[in-house]
Amino acid sequence: MSKRSAAVFVLLFALLMSFLCVNSSPFFNKTGTDSSVFVVMGRGMLNGKVMYKDLFDHKGLYLYFLNFIAAMISSKSLIGVFMIECVFMVLCAWIVYSLFSKYADSRAALLGMQMFMIIAMKRNILEGGNLTEEYALLFQVCAIYLLHKDSGKH
Q1: pLDDT above 70 (res 150)
Q2: Within 13 A of 15's CA, how many CA atoms are on the CB side?
Q3: How far apart are CA 61 and CA 41, in angstroms?
Q4: Which one of 1, 84, 130, 141 has the largest count of C-beta atoms within 10 Å of its C-beta?
Q5: Global pTM?
Q6: By CB neighbour count within 10 A (0-12 exposed, 13-18 middle, 19+ buried), where does 105 fall?
Q7: Which H or E element spans position 31?
Q8: Taking residues 49-54, what's their average pLDDT?
């Protein structure tokens, strides 16, 4: 399988999983408790509120910043949140595929990526999405990829 075909497959699979597994998907269009707080904070920032002064929650600023970007895309719906989540999931899937590609052929790497994404995005693990765990996953797989990037070269 060519690298281009693999990239298209990874993209489509990650998008399909996002449509089926995250609450901000147009199929569900809802938020959980924590996700609702993040959406409110992001929309508050869009309206000029200062985090930790005008609005307060005990989470980190980058969650609010991601929801601020989402609110800039759409402050009336969750489509902005969904788009941000899709970007994170596509990048995560591509990194996982790239990591598996170092040790297996393209078909096995695609199967490994699918299995990883299915487990990572299970509804009871992801809890509907737009949470720290979902966004942190990209950075975790990126760190693992970087650890293995030059392995075997002496």
Answers
A1: yes
A2: 7
A3: 10
A4: 130
A5: 0.90
A6: exposed
A7: none
A8: 92
